[in-house]
Prior knowledge:
Strands 6-7-5-4-3-2-1-8 form an 8-stranded mixed β-sheet. By secondary structure, it is α/β, with parallel strands linked by helices. 35% of the residues lie in helices and 14% in strands. It is built from 6 helices and 8 strands. α4 links the parallel β4 and β5 (147-149).
Amino acid sequence: MSKYIMRLDDACPRHDRERWQRMEELLTAYGVRPLVGIIPACKDPMMNQYPEDENFWERVRAWQARGWCLALHGYDHVYGSASGGMNPVNPRSEFAGLPLEQQKEKISAGVELLREQGIEPKVFFAPSHTFDANTLTALKECSSIRLISDTVANAPYRKDGFTFVPQQTGRVRKLPFDTVTFCYHPNELDERGFLDLEAFLRVHEGEFVPFPLGQTDREENWEDRLLRRAYFGLRGLRKKIKGK
Length: 244
């Protein structure tokens, strides 16, 4: 039986309050404690469509007190390169392709801003899922974060001093993996998405687990590498077909 993790992206002072509130109430009703990505200093122009929530950081601390896991989700959520890095889900990145010193500045500043709000992040995931070896070095040198929510694999594994917890899909569904992370963006979720999520929660309520904060002893193996090769190969083929 698979273990499910719920991940919520793009929490920042400018957000769709009604959708986030609905998501919070839904997950609470089913006892799901998600991983939430906090953008410390969001400058993404896409967020300007939402009004600023003056009580945002109080809400974040309430999530933390409730047992929700809080992650550093980049620094400003602004893309500075067209690189997919080590996890090329998208051809854009706030981190991948940037010099090490610039990435260190982003990580340091992001961690410091969260600490000022009483939050000590233990997990990292990058905007658009894209990061590179310099990102890992920056995390090692500028933070205590050694857990990353991203990559395609059957289960969490260790590599380069980090534990990678796989994140394979953007909607609830059955997948043949030991650990499955569903990545949701509450700001963009429509009515159909909420109804599908609730229907899945109703059936699989007891199969959701909190984000695993303990490091795993399982090392990356050939099956993980083969799975990623197949995943990104298929993803690339679909893009080519759509482009024709």
